[in-house]
Amino acid sequence: MKPTNHYFSGLGTTIFTVMSALARRHGAINLAQGFPDDNGPDEVRAVAARALQEGPNQYPPGRGIPELCEAVAAHDQRFYGFDFSPDNVLVTAGATEALAASMMALVNPGDEAVIFEPAYDSYRPILEGMGVTVRAVQLAPPAWSFTEQDLTKAFSPRTKLVVLNSPMNPIGKVFSRDELELIASFVERHDCFAVCDEVYEHIVFDGRAHIPLMTLPAMAERTVRIGSAGKTFSLTGWKVGYISGPAALVEAINKVHQFLVFTVPPNLQKGVAHGLRFDDSYFHSLAHDMQAKRDRLSANLTKAGFRVLPSEGTYFLTADYSALAPGEPSDAFCMRITRDAGVAAIPLAPFYGTPPEDPLVRFCFCKDNAVLDDGAKRLERYFSGVSAPSAPAPSREAHNNA
Question: What is the pTM of this model?
Answer without folding.
Answer: 0.92
